[in-house]
Design a protein that fits this description.
This protein is 52% helix and 13% strand. It is an alpha/beta fold. An eight-stranded mixed sheet has the order 3-2-1-4-5-6-7-8, with helices on both faces. The protein is globular, with a radius of gyration of 21 Å.
Length: 279
């Protein structure tokens, strides 16, 4: 199996490592807009060769697009124009806008929308790691619009690197990811800004930072080039969840201002119910 990966950063690079590690791919071709990224991917052994987009697509059995999500709406139609009967997937965190961009393309059925729900706060080919996807969930969206045999092949691909599979329509996917992923990044960015604005002593931050603070603010290290396009594409859902989050912050503040600590205890007990969902 020959795999072409367009965009060789954290996700694309980690996908390359896993597909090779678990024997799904025996040849991996990289495509990158940046020569320095391409060279680093070769040096790290993430890919076997770097080729221009059209040549890389022609040689592939499966094309994986792992660029920032704002590029999908332009690059996916181009890739579908170039393919014969290859499978094309993307691995982004937003789906509705991306799928709408190729909904009426004559090769739409060759495309499978996927979201392997894994990552770290780091970016670039140096951030790629083995087994990033093991025991994680991959969501396939609007699969009924893709060729069944291609959906099956992509299921096999993700299962070969240790992922579980779920199916969801693109509208529900974007709403759910706003709650479980996108708001987490917003909270982390906001907390980092709050601490940096209030505490000017960097050494004090370093010395006093506990594991709780580190884990909460970890996502604030994430690349803005990745996350601003995600927020833009999922704007309405993000704004909806942000409204709810702000309402809860205001409720928390109101209980503190009123010295209503019994109610605050109830507020925390309600939040504790998340333990029934996340063990």
């Amino acid at each position: 199996m020959t795999i072409t990966i367009v965009g060789i950063g954290l996700i694309g690079g980690s996908m390359a490592l896993s597909l090779r590690d678990y024997g799904f791919a025996n040849h991996i071709i990289g495509v990158s807009r940046r020569p320095e990224t391409a060279q680093k991917a070769l040096e790290l052994g993430l890919v076997d060769e770097i080729l221009p987009l059209e040549e890389a697509i022609k040689k592939a059995d499966i094309v994986i697009v792992a660029t920032p999500v704002d590029l999908y709406v332009t690059i996916l139609p181009t890739i579908l124009d170039l393919i014969d009967n290859q499978i094309v997937i993307e691995v982004g965190s937003t789906k509705k806008i991306v799928i709408d961009a190729i909904r009426n393309h004559p090769k739409r059925a060759n495309f499978v929308a996927t979201h392997p729900m894994a990552g770290t706060e780091y970016s670039g080919p140096e951030a790629a790691i083995h087994d990033l996807f093991k025991n994680k969930l991959c969501v396939l969206c609007d699969a009924e619009d893709s060729k069944p045999e291609f959906v099956t092949k992509i299921e096999e691909m993700y299962q070969s690197i240790g992922m579980r599979i779920a199916f969801m329509n693109s509208t529900d996917h974007d709403r759910h990811t706003a709650y479980i992923s996108h708001i987490s990044h917003i909270c982390s960015f906001a907390l980092a800004l709050t601490v940096l604005e209030k505490e000017k002593d960097e050494e004090a931050i370093f010395n006093l930072a506990s594991t709780g603070f580190e884990s909460t603010v970890r996502l604030a290290k994430s690349n803005p080039d990745t996350w601003v396009p995600i927020f833009r594409q999922n704007r309405d859902n993000v704004l909806s969840v942000l409204d709810e989050y702000i309402n809860n912050l205001l409720k928390f503040k109101g209980l503190m201002l009123a010295d209503s600590y019994e109610k605050l205890h109830e507020f925390f007990e309600e939040a504790n119910k998340i333990k029934k969902i996340l063990k």
